[in-house]
Sequence to fold (119 residues):
Amino acid sequence: MFADGGTIAANPELPMASALAENGRASSDADSIDGACQTQWECWSDTEPTESGGTCGKCCVVVLEGMASLSEVTTKEKNTMAKKSKKYFGSRFDEGKCRLACQARVKGVVKIQPLGKAE
Ligand code: FES
Fold:
């Protein structure tokens, strides 16, 4: 579920970014998502969803509801958010509310706000 009211289904075996990408809610190319505020990725690959990502910090999303319905934060994800996401998103980054879409698995209903901007 998104802050804008949209909903999509996520496979709990794959990172959240897979569902976002399949539904046009995330991209590795800012120009392909029409300048809208979306989630982007850089180090993750949608062709190797469970074997990639977790190092650039650019796929951050704000979890508005349902943080407990996400997989546990790994040390790698925590470190990337603390070092890279914080620098990249500045004051929009809130460590207690953010997750990396390329790392977090969705296990229940969550409501997110994409943090990235496409411009
Ligand atoms: S795409 Fe790089 S950390 Fe998620």
User: Anything to note?
Assistant: The helical segments are 16-22, 75-89. Residues 37 and 117 are 4 Å apart (CA to CA). The beta strands are 26-27, 39-40, 60-65, 98-100, 111-114.
